[in-house]
User: Fold this.
Amino acid sequence: MPVSIIVVTGASGAGKTVAVSALEARDVPGVQCFYFDSIGIPTADVMERDHGGPEGWQAWATNQWLARLAALGSGVRVAVLDAQTRPSTVFAASGAGNSWYPHVVLFDCSAEVRTARLCGTRGQPELATPRMDSWAAYLRGQADALGLPIVDTTKLTIEEAAQQLQELVRRLENSNAPQ
Assistant:
């Protein structure tokens, strides 16, 4: 049976990585978690030179990840990828719907909470910018337009966000039809 891949997307500070990490710590049988940024993020110059810019690199890297996850062995029923990527890129990837099933969930929160997280616990105030706010709004617009599940982490604890993610994973385990 093909693996179901759930891509957890959202702007920096929305709670993706902490929720995926908390899900991973639960050691759910048949579920394996992966982190997009673990491949490393090239400089803007390298992205421009090799891929025509950040969007081209993001699409290339997303496709690389999805091909890798689609090739996982039968011990993995659901692969969860923490990735800050466009839902449209996931659905357009090679093999989507044939050799693997694509699913995307958006993690989102208010701009105020995202800024507080980035400037506080994350220690990355340089990411709390109007550009990040625009990226979050863009992702929310895509999720709304595509009818994707949205986990609003504004008032959730890490465990509550992980629980909502685990419930989505359970639904995917029971149905390999695109959500």
Remarks:
- The longest strand covers residues 100-108.
- The mean pLDDT is 90.
